[in-house]
Specification:
The protein is an alpha/beta fold and 636 residues long. Helix content is 30%, strand content 20%. Among the domains are: 204 residues, Class I glutamine amidotransferase (GATase) domain (Rossmann fold); 38 residues, no CATH class. The chain has a 9-stranded parallel sheet with strand order 5-4-3-2-1-11-8-7-6. A 9-stranded mixed sheet has the order 13-12-14-15-24-23-22-17-20, with helices on both faces. It has a 3-stranded antiparallel sheet with strand order 25-26-27, covered by helices on one side. The structure holds beta-D-galactopyranose. The site of beta-D-galactopyranose (GAL) has 10 residues, from loops. It catalyses: Hydrolysis of terminal non-reducing beta-D-galactose residues in beta-D-galactosides.
């Protein structure tokens, strides 16, 4: 089990380093991420390195049996770099070249940046590749920076040439005859800079794909310099709608998937969500929770103290899903600088604090865990696709309430609440091992992926598709002749009109209804409401299970081959969505509400109690309030 966090000793006088390692030992810390933002210290003048301080840090850590996850500091170039190479500073969509003074102010397409980043990686690999403390390489920090400069424009055009081959193909894919955008020369194409009115959705989507590939190339360049040292190389994935990174693709290029997780809503549920995503991206390979906040959670711009026990419980949610440990940002809270109020494992109050006590207690617990080979056999998957998410952020959609992440989170929450640990899967993956697949608002789908889903149902699977799915192809062009074009046949329906809803509307059970089911007091037959969205669904083979008050089908079911394809044409509340899952045959939780039970192939069971009461009968001993247990139960 890896345990530790980002360690920034360059922010502290050297005598503090000795306190640091003593406290790290007290807290059973065994891995620290060093050097993430150290470029200006490591290369104070272009081409002149100062490794003396880092030598002493790494030697001190090695002498104390603490391993190092050594970062390349390329997320924050030093002031001399920005002055010498102003063309490598980020340019925003509205043409503003940003100045030095924060972090992440670089352009991954700028040749001077690429050269400087490779030179730094080479220097670090040469100096520390055989250092006894070195356990892992941490390339960069949270790739995700956008830039719209001329370097980017050139690289984007090259990428477009490779993707589309010819301008004719690009013009067709981008529907450039709309608003006279037809290109007759590659040089006419720009990154999607600020426009007068709505921008071209296909261009926006291709630009995100390009940024993901461009940043990945940047990562791969550094990785290939570091890999000959024989030490695993990774980078920490950051999550958010603004991040132009396709983690499915990136996961294939890292030696272990590493994620940063900063929940901003219900942390219990969001931790499970982040960990299920990371586990799925890793596809059976190792992964690690690289960063989380120690003593606070962030909510609406506020930093709220985590209640006692939460720090360990959230870490355990990740470990229960296969994380090889729990890491934090950061070891010691900074006394100055832009993030001086971000939390630390050693907060400003020092070790004599609740946070440090909880950190030490968790360290002891993790040090005492016995090894096991994590592996979860999920029977249910949720489809997760960045391209669909990005496309659903296009301008000009028929309602501002259509929100991919909200839809996905509701599906995950519903499974989490009923004790099901799902995988996430890409629509093109082999999904034959699952019994049920949830497809929340997957706006964009390729014909190939649509065929994949069709085969899944044909062979006996249950598919539960939610509104605004399968409407466009990979170029954001609408599949014609009735929505949802790519899945119409499989779902046995055809839709000709959409109506956004500003108020919830009642839904009614109809036709051959499934038996009433109870979910938090709501029955299928009563109180079902539709929200934000509705569709004019016509039956073409499917049966209506629930209707709008007009009698138009709202939820349908289609027997197809050996399986069943459900369609939900509106947004339900959580109880309604849970009722739909029950109607579709998903089991309900056997554990009491608020208790999470995660079973691994090798019989290891993690039980995590999110309630304030002791829970009996799940683990060999009662689960303490807010606590957890790990035990072996091969039979259940
Ligand atoms: C992370 C980032 C860290 C630090 C942290 C603050 O996203 O990687 O460097 O900024 O947030 O919570």
């Amino acid at each position: 089990m890896r345990y530790g966090g980002d360690y920034n000793p360059e922010q502290w006088p050297e005598e503090v380093w000795h306190d640091d390692v003593a406290l790290m030992r007290e807290a059973s810390v065994n891995l620290v991420t060093v050097g993430v933002f150290s470029w200006s210290r490591l290369e104070p003048v272009e081409g002149e390195y100062d490794f003396g301080w880092l030598d002493r840090v790494l030697d001190l850590l090695a002498a104390n049996d603490i391993q190092v996850n050594l970062a390349t500091p390329t997320a924050s170039p030093p002031p001399w770099f920005s002055l010498a190479y102003p063309d490598a500073l980020t340019v925003t969509a509205d043409g503003v070249r940003l100045t030095h003074g924060s972090r992440d102010t670089y352009c991954v397409s700028a040749p001077p940046y690429r050269t400087a980043a490779k030179r730094m990686a080479t220097a670090l690999a040469g100096r520390y590749g055989e250092h006894p403390a070195l356990a892992m390489w941490h390339v960069h920090n949270e790739y995700g920076t956008w830039c719209h400069c001329d370097h980017v424009a050139g690289a984007f055009r090259e990428w477009l040439r490779r993707r589309h081959g010819s301008l004719d193909v690009l013009n067709e894919a981008w529907t450039t005859d709309f608003w006279s955008q037809r290109y007759s020369d590659w040089a006419q194409i720009s990154p999607p800079r600020k426009t007068q009115y709505l921008a071209n959705p296909a261009q926006l989507l291709d630009f995100r794909r390009f940024l993901s590939d461009e940043m990945l190339a940047c990562y791969v360049e550094q990785r290939d310099i570091l890999r000959p040292t024989g030490v695993p190389v990774t980078t920490n994935f950051v999550f958010g709608g603004w991040v132009p990174v396709d983690h499915w693709r990136w996961a294939e290029e890292v030696d272990l998937v590493a994620i940063d997780d900063y929940p901003s809503g219900n942390a219990e549920e969001e931790s499970a969500f982040a960990a299920d995503l990371a586990r799925s991206w890793a596809r059976g390979r190792p992964w690690l929770l690289m960063e989380q906040a120690a003593g606070v959670r962030y909510a609406g711009g506020r930093m709220i103290p985590k209640e006692p026990g939460a720090l360990a419980r959230h870490s355990m949610q990740h470990i229960a899903r296969g994380s090889q440990g729990a890491m934090f940002f950061q070891w010691r809270a900074s006394r100055g600088g832009a993030e001086q109020w971000h939390h630390g494992m050693v907060p400003h109050a020092g070790p004599n604090s609740r946070t440090f006590q909880e950190i030490s207690a968790l360290g002891r617990t993790l040090a005492g865990l016995s090894d096991h080979v994590p592996g979860i056999d999920a029977k249910v998957a949720i489809l997760w696709d960045y391209e669909a998410w990005w496309a659903l952020q296009s301008p000009g959609l028929p309602s501002p309430d259509l929100d991919y992440l909200k839809s996905i989170r509701q599906a995950h929450r519903a499974l989490w609440q009923r004790g099901i640990t799902p995988d996430f899967a890409h629509p093109s993956h082999d999904i034959s091992q699952y019994e049920t697949i949830l497809v929340p608002s997957l706006y964009l789908i390729t014909s190939k992926s649509a065929a994949n889903l069709t085969t899944f149902v044909q062979n006996g699977g249950t598919l539960i598709v939610s509104y605004f799915t399968a409407l466009t192809n990979e170029h954001c062009q609408i599949h014609l002749n009735g929505h949802p074009g790519a899945l119409r046949h499989l779902l046995g329906i055809s839709i000709d009109e959409f109506t956004p809803l500003t108020e919830p509307i009642p839904l009614l059970a109809s036709g051959e209804t499934p038996p009433p089911v109870r979910s938090s007091g709501t029955t299928w037959n009563a109180q079902l409401t539709g929200m934000i969205w509705s569709e004019n669904v016509r039956l073409v083979g499917a049966e209506a299970v629930v209707t709008y008050s007009s009698g138009t089908p709202a939820i349908t079911r289609n027997r197809y081959g050996a399986g069943t394809a459900w369609y939900l044409s509106t947004q339900l509340d959580d109880d309604g969505y849970a009722a739909l899952l029950t109607a579709a045959g998903l089991p309900v939780a056997s554990a009491p509400p608020g208790v999470e039970v995660i079973r691994h192939r090798d019989g290891t069971v993690y039980a995590i109690n999110h309630t304030k009461d002791a829970v009996h009968g799940i683990a060999p001993n009662p689960l303490p309030p807010g606590g957890f247990a790990i035990f072996n139960d091969p039979c259940r």
